[in-house]
Amino acid sequence: MDEKAAVGVFECLSSGVRLGVFRLLVKAEPAGIVAGDIASALDIAPSSLSFHLRTMTQAGLLRVEQEGRFLRYRANLVLMTEVVGFLTENCCSGVAGGCRDGDLLSGRFPGCGSSNPVRESKA
Amino acid sequence: MDEKAAVGVFECLSSGVRLGVFRLLVKAEPAGIVAGDIASALDIAPSSLSFHLRTMTQAGLLRVEQEGRFLRYRANLVLMTEVVGFLTENCCSGVAGGCRDGDLLSGRFPGCGSSNPVRESKA
DNA sequence: ACGATATTTCAACAAATTTGGAAATGTTGA
DNA sequence: TCAACATTTCCAAATTTGTTGAAATATCGT
Q1: B51 located within any domain
Q2: Which of A30, A38, A100, B50 has an alpha carbon 20 to 30 Å from B101's alpha carbon atom?
Q3: CA B115 to each of CA A82, A103, B112: distance values in angstroms, whole numbers, following the listed order
Q4: Is Chaperone given among the entry's keywords (chains A, B) (predicted)?
């Protein structure tokens, strides 16, 4: 997962509405939910929901499948797994071990890669 | 971590600039980087960077410390750990086990909580 | 074929975000 | 005290995002 894809996903999750949609769809796995039902469950205007659904689908976060005159949406858990991977690898310290164990932080970091000379002050 | 806090963090990460700042600071742990150096490393106008830095600090993603006339920023790894937790708990399927193992998906979900009656079609 | 339904697309608009320059604030070293 | 510097705040402009209602598209049941 590259940075651009990650930004796309975070963009999706950075809206209360979209995060709500996604959480709803995660709970609804693997059945998925039809657009109209998402709209009524979350009380969003169909037109507005459609806008968010398209955004999320383009980002790869959702999968759609036509079902008669309904469109059934499902959460893409594979992508979300990759996002968690991206976060732990790139955003939870470069130190090996990831950030699952709490003692990682606020403790002492031996050399921290030796690539970070502490600059006291420039001028 | 509640939904509102999570949205705040995702908002921060939903900008290429801010994600770049955060990744840079994660690599620079635990030394942190002074504002001016972030600006030159990422080639952002100081005024613009300051705007993003404030946003991220308010969201709790960054920690600041004054150092003479410099301001040293550091990534808040604790919060990021919580975000990963939020994601695995709320966005990687309600099924116990989280989303660390790949076979979670695309497989069969026994009953999926029995709370998801598949609706064939409403009308 | 027809009317009802599900969803999307479109256009217009309101609201929020982002940017960069200029000025303000505060710190340093002499 | 003063000049240089780091950073922020303020402000205006450009861009992006989100919402709404109306119209379009497509499918269903009869």
Answers
A1: yes
A2: A38
A3: 27, 38, 7
A4: no
